[in-house]
Amino acid sequence: MISKGKIDSVREKQKDLCNICKFKLQEGKFHVDHIKPKSKGGDDGGDNLQLICIPCHSKKNEADGVHARYPKYTYTSVCDECGKVVGGYSQDHSNYLMQQHMLKHEREKKNNSKKQEKGKDVF
Fold first, then answer.
1. Which domains does the chain carry?
2. Which helix or strand (DSSP H or E) is residue 33 part of?
């Protein structure tokens, strides 16, 4: 098992970015990856570890010929507002997830607007 300290060290080294696509890692939505797969002689040493987003991990495992333990995201898109990579199992699924993600941005904007209105003085 890879320690939290080792993961934090790799995360700091990568500046909180996916080591492949360079998008910001989202808390709980990334994988610890062995650069050289353990099945091909890689180890758990810090120099053989990288943190990558789930879509990049799926693509890397496919390229490495490694069987993934989780479903593959074949359709991905990137949010223009925050840079998050949203992946789905089909084009429709990916579109649905992106719509949900954009609704989250709209709710956040609306909440921020309400907070600003409450902070204004009325004369």
1. 1-68 (3.40.1800), 73-118 (no CATH)
2. strand 30-34
